Amino acid sequence: MDTVLYPLEWVVAWLMVNFHQAFSFIGLPKDSGFTWSLSIVGLVIVIRIVLIPLFVKQIHASRRMQLIQPEMQKIQKKYKGKSDPESRQAMTQETMGLYKRTGTNPFSSCLPILLQSPVFFALFRVLQGLTKIAKGIQDPIGPMTRDLARSAEGSTVFGAPLSSYFVGAGESPLPLNTQIVTVVLIILMSATTFTTQRQLMMKNMPANALDNPFAKQQKVLLYLMPLFFAFSGINFPIGVLLYWTTTNVWSMGQQFYTIRRMPAPGSPAEKALEARRLKSGKEHKKFSIPGLSHDSETEDVQDSPIAETKPKSGQRQQPKRKNRGKPTGPNDPKLGPTPPAPTDDDA
């Protein structure tokens, strides 16, 4: 773990130190906790700017996943109740074929979160090692020298050191301040996460997408996340909680902009965007996927009777043959003229 995270720890320390020097250059106190806090905020901004291309891919992947849901439901309905290995394999092959045909990658929506996790843990280890670096027990991490580590370790925000924990608040100079700052950050972290997920589900998901089991599970997690943050947040340093909260605020604003400008197909946000564009006289072009028919993008999967096929306008209709092989009268051309009825002279 040390070998894997050390390059990221070096990058995190380098960004923090450079932002700290920049803020100190413009006149902020170099030993102030607010200066080091702004350095963490600057770290978040740089990381999120770097991840913008992946975020765009995430948006397109989410929209593609939304558009292929009718086709996905058809496949699931086709193999519903079939648990034999052949059916399961056929269902998997058809699903993967749909992904390949439409250029959809279901894992693209998870990339920004997965790539932020190592940075999160790298920052955790940098803040955790400040005390050891300041005392000379641990080697400096990149440009985070002993003097800078001592400055960051001694800095406080409302009396709470950036490297202090809620559970270890008794070791800080002002334990009550540490606990209050930690609780406030946990509340902000939970509130921003709840708001981000709620606006995603309420504004950027079609009504039919909210009825599937996955969406219902997401609703449950929406209300369980604050409890998760409450139990996990007390074990993280204040600097890490600040990083997490800042990331959530960025995600909330970024998602608000994305939902307004690039909403999911069929969602309330798309209807609002269409209304705004029509009001301003602009054309609204719906998002489409090459390889997916227009009907598949919009139709709901439901049982419907098979309609009678009618010839299209302009198509010649073949004449129907009637009473084939049956005589129709006394002079049917197929039978020839009918012989006269026998008389008494013939007898």
Overview of this structure, please?
The structure is a single chain. The protein is 60% helix and 1% strand. By secondary structure, it is mainly alpha-helical. The chain has a domain at 2-68 and 104-276. Strands 1-2 form a two-stranded antiparallel sheet. The longest helix has 29 residues, at 175-203. Residues 294-315 and 343-347 have low confidence and may be disordered.
Question: Can you describe this structure in just a few lines?
Answer:
This protein is mainly alpha-helical. It is built from 13 helices and 2 strands; from the N terminus they run H-H-H-H-H-H-H-H-E-E-H-H-H-H-H.
* SSE pattern: HHHHHHHHEEHHHHH
Q: What structural category arises from helix and sheet content? A: mainly alpha
Shape: elongated
Mean pLDDT: 76
Radius of gyration: 35 Å
The number of helices is: 13
Low-confidence stretches: 294-315, 343-347
Which strand order do you get reading across the main beta sheet? 1-2
Distance between the termini: 120 Å
What characterizes the major β-sheet? 2 strands, antiparallel
- Beta fraction: under 5%
The overall strand count is: 2
Q: Helicity, in percent? A: 55-70%
